[in-house]
Design goal:
11 strands; alpha/beta; 48% helix; 318 residues; six-stranded mixed β-sheet
Length: 318
């Protein structure tokens, strides 16, 4: 009877050791995470995770390791781990070693300071909460004051989407920039898939698109590098080398109506084209539809003005 019990005990231990629950357990300070899949699970389950990406043959990584393990012993409520990898990790924007990323509830921020104990510890205290802001259609103008002169300061905004790989790589960089300029300038992200009106308002045709808003003007980021020093330099003065554009105002219901009419006309023209040419008949139809659309617009304007005048007269008589 002892053999079956022994076999069952061994089986239970093996299941425990190789189960996802065991892998997802909190690692000891400075522990090496075996794979990037394990790292994804750790980042998804733990609130604060500090990660040192290193390459086994990297001499600088070896010199930094004692500093990192000492820091790991001091930090509270932070999981401190290492990930060994040969070659770049585009998923995390890691293209050199050692590379330090700090995940706050899954949101990463990139460290670009000196590999010294004091510098890293001070930086961690400043970045425990994400400094990169999220903007939406219902709070964009209220927070940025983009079209009125920016009483809330300068804003660097990246228009992105969840499906954009380059956008995901840029997030840790932008959060790091946000930490450096905190209190002086602002950095934010807009998801164009969830905020189509902002996408249309600023004529965003591709992601990522980065626009710098300052004193009622906007400057589109066009530098080839997307790293911390370059973006910070752009915000501090390089934007002056870019053509300034007036910030488009908030579209009114009338603006949206006109835009819909124009879109319908464009769609109509596209459907009546045959082999790249429009026949005389379809050309006449296009003219008729265009005139009809303009007529609707004019009538709408007249009605609105009439109602406004009547309301003003009524208020005066009262």
């Amino acid at each position: 009877m002892a053999a079956p019990r022994y076999t069952f005990s061994v089986l239970v231990v093996l299941i425990f050791l190789f189960s996802p629950v065991y892998i997802a357990q909190r690692p000891p300070p400075g522990a090496i995470v075996p794979t990037t899949d394990d790292l994804r699970r750790l980042v998804a389950t733990e609130e604060l995770v500090l990660v040192n990406f290193y390459e086994p043959s990297c001499e600088e990584c070896k010199a930094f390791y004692p500093v990192y393990t000492e820091l790991a012993q001091e930090l509270e409520q932070v999981d401190v781990v290492c990930v060994s990898h040969n070659g770049p990790l585009p998923e995390y924007g890691v293209n050199s070693f050692p590379r330090i990323l700090f995940f706050r509830k899954g949101s990463p921020v990139l460290y670009d300071g000196a590999l010294m104990h004091e510098d890293l510890y001070e930086w961690l205290e400043l970045t425990r909460q994400p400094n990169l802001q999220q903007l939406f259609e219902d709070n964009f103008e209220h927070l940025t004051q983009a079209s009125t002169g920016a009483t809330t300061g300068d804003w660097l905004v990246m228009f992105s989407s969840e499906s954009c790989v380059d956008c995901k790589v840029a997030i840790p960089v932008l959060d790091a920039v946000a930490t450096k300029v905190k209190g002086r300038q602002n950095v934010a992200v807009v998801d164009v898939e969830k905020n189509p009106q902002l996408k249309d308002r600023f004529k965003v045709t591709e992601v990522p698109t980065i626009i710098f808003f300052r004193l009622g003007k906007m400057y589109t980021y066009n530098l080839p590098k997307m790293d911390i020093p370059t973006i910070k330099s752009f915000m501090e003065g390089w934007y002056k080398n870019v053509r300034a554009e007036a910030v488009p105002g908030i579209p009114t219901p009338f603006d949206q109506l006109v835009e819909k009419i124009v879109d319908h006309l464009k769609a109509f023209v596209a459907t009546v084209k045959t082999d790249g040419a429009v026949t005389a008949l379809t050309g006449n139809l296009v003219v008729m539809v265009t005139l009809a659309g303009l007529f609707v617009v004019i009538v709408t304007i007249v009605v609105c003005l009439t109602c406004t005048c009547k309301q003003d007269q009524k208020l005066k008589t009262e």
